Amino acid sequence: MKITLIQGDITQIKVDAIVNAANSSLLGGGGVDGAIHRAGGPAILEECRRIRDRQGRCATGEAVITTAGKLPAKYVIHTVGPVWNKGNDEEKRLLRNAYINSLLLAVKHGVETIAFPNISTGVYHFPKPIAAEIAVAAVKEFLAQDNRITNLVFVCHEKENYDIYSELLSRN
Ligand code: ADP
Question: Which InterPro entries match (predicted)?
Fold first, then answer.
């Protein structure tokens, strides 16, 4: 198993699947969600709408999969991270679920290479160091049990997250 860390724009990464930090409406938003829909084109939103019509909103910690439209990736996995509320609403468990459920959906679709943004650390205000610890622990645990993912990329948009991940990943 291989974990890679880069600083950049997740829409540019050529992997089987990129993960989107979506909101439960699945109808697009700001931040990484907006960037993915802008760069991937309308096919992604069309498929999100069909999923919504079929199953309703996406619950926090759950994930759905769509085409990646014009992006270099094959799929976008849309997961909904928790909004930080001082740790009172099981946000840590829900953030972990967002990573694990994205990975479960990925392997179900034959994905071998996957890129994650720093879910919930933008407008959802999850404290970055805690979010990074949860993300790294969750994916390491998953990859240790399931060898179908050959490369997992953490894509940090900001230097602050990049530095946090860099330190965490060098530690163990
Ligand atoms: P959330 O609502 O889950 O907090 P945001 O999109 O606001 O989602 O932020 C999640 C993370 O995505 C933030 O760390 C933000 O810096 C990062 N981000 C924003 N644009 C991009 C991008 N193009 N590629 C990768 N990460 C991005």
Answer: Macro_dom, Macro_dom-like
Looking at the chain, list the stretches that DSSP marks H as alpha helix, in order from N- to C-terminal side.
Answer: 31-40, 42-55, 91-108, 128-145, 159-171
**Distance in Å, CA 8 to ligand 1 centroid:** 11
State the Cα–Cα distance between residues 143 and 102, nearest whole angstrom.
Answer: 13
Task: Answer yes or no: are the C-beta atoms of 76 and 68 closer than 8 Å.
Answer: yes
The 10 Å CB-count burial string (b at 16+, else e) for 100-125 is bbbbebbeeeebebbbbbbbbbbebe
Q: What is the pTM of this model?
A: 0.98
Average pLDDT, the chain: 97
Probe residue for ligand 1, chosen from 27, 37, 118 as the CB with the greatest number of ligand atoms within 8 Å: 118
Please give the single-letter amino acid code of residue 144: A
Domain residue ranges of the chain, discontinuous segments joined by +? 2-170
Say which CATH topology domain 2-170 has: Leucine Aminopeptidase, subunit E; domain 1 (3.40.220)
Q: What's the 148 CA to ligand 1 centre distance in angstroms?
A: 26
